[in-house]
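Ops channel
N.P.: pipeline sanity check, posting one input/output pair.
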């Protein structure tokens, strides 16, 4: 049913899936409501026993603008007997296709439904999405907060975000920062780099786990030389050829090629298709190579840190004996104090070990002074 309700009788839903409201768009809506009133009612449900009798299901943005516009009463559609889950589903349905709902808000909404027992297939059917769309959105929830914020701001595209989300938190930051600072010419290159990092995480052998035999090494050298030769020929022959053809006018080519024109169109089409495949293959190889380099640099830093720690520990170890050597000579005193009965000797031995270590760090302490007086008295 529809009713005119006081704004003070309506409370926003604390579980609203949408958390971000654009300030400029909100001001525009407020100005429109001041001029024309609220054209689309908000949707609410009654809440028994609450301080505020109605809770929003849909229309929080409109409700906010009505409040800012100073309206006291607004039109509302009241849905009776709506459970919390039903209300949540309706609030998602209102926002999920809006451009101003962030991708991470959408992912969080789907995650809440999944936690309530919904399958990705059921979620997809409910909101008119594909199951793949839902699965990919859910996959974004493993992003660390800093990267998720970059995604929400639009600094990182949705597809790339999913590839980054498959990485551990440290590598997520590596891939995200390198993309944002412009290390890649295309989004595909960034995806291939992220996939390369994932291969490194899975400890996939990229270079071979064992040293190659002489025969394997020779085979690799031949393959490398052949690949370089083939790509070199393509670079020397095809690029000048296409540059020459590209400089001509269509009407000239129509006359020059004549009846062979159809054949050459098909041939160039096949070349283009093969070039695209090879370009994609080389881009993937480039991503793996970059990931290997990033992993190598990380390992090098760890080795340097470990070496520095070992050097520090060694320096401290050498300083300790040197300080001990400067300590006052104790053997003569031990000989003097060894004469009393066995019980006293045991106690003295127990007390003197820490005393010597203390004297190695400090010149003299009350703890070391007392035994020396005792030793002097015994010698007298």
């Amino acid at each position: 049913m529809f009713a005119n309700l006081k704004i003070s009788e309506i409370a926003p839903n604390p579980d609203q899936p949408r958390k971000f409201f654009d300030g400029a768009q909100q001001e525009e809506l407020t100005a429109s409501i001041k001029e024309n009133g609220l054209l689309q009612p908000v949707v609410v449900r009654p809440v028994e026993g609450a301080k505020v009798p109605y809770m929003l299901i849909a229309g929080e943005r409109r409700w906010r603008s009505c409040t800012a516009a100073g309206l006291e009463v607004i039109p509302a559609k009241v849905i009776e007997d709506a459970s919390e889950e039903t209300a949540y589903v309706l609030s998602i349905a209102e926002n999920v296709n809006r451009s101003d709902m962030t991708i991470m808000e959408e992912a969080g909404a789907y995650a809440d439904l999944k936690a309530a027992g919904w399958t990705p297939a059921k979620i997809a059917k409910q909101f008119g999405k594909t199951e793949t769309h839902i699965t990919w959105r859910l996959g974004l929830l493993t992003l660390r907060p800093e990267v998720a914020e970059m995604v929400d701001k639009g600094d990182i595209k949705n597809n790339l975000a999913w590839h980054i989300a498959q990485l551990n938190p440290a590598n997520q930051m590596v891939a995200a920062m390198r993309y944002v600072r412009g290390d890649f010419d295309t989004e595909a290159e960034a995806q291939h780099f992220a996939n390369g990092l994932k291969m490194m995480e899975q400890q996939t052998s990229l270079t071979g786990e064992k040293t190659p035999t002489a025969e394997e090494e020779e085979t690799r050298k031949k393959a490398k030389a052949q690949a370089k030769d083939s790509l070199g020929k393509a670079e020397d022959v095809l690029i000048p050829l296409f540059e020459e053809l590209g400089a001509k006018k269509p009407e000239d080519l129509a006359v020059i090629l004549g009846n062979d024109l159809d054949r050459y169109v098909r041939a160039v089409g096949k070349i283009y298709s093969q070039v695209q495949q090879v370009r994609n293959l080389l881009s993937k190889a480039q991503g793996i190579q970059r990931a290997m380099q990033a992993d190598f640099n990380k390992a090098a830093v760890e080795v340097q840190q470990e070496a520095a720690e070992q050097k520090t520990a060694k320096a401290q170890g050498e300083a300790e004996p040197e300080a001990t050597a400067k300590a006052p000579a104790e053997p003569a005193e031990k000989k003097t104090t060894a004469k009393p009965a066995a019980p006293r000797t045991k106690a003295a031995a127990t007390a003197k070990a820490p005393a010597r270590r203390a004297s190695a760090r400090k010149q003299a302490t009350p703890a070391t002074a007392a035994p020396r007086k005792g030793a002097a008295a015994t010698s007298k």
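N.P.: looks fine end to end. Residues 208 and 216 are 11 Å apart (CA to CA).
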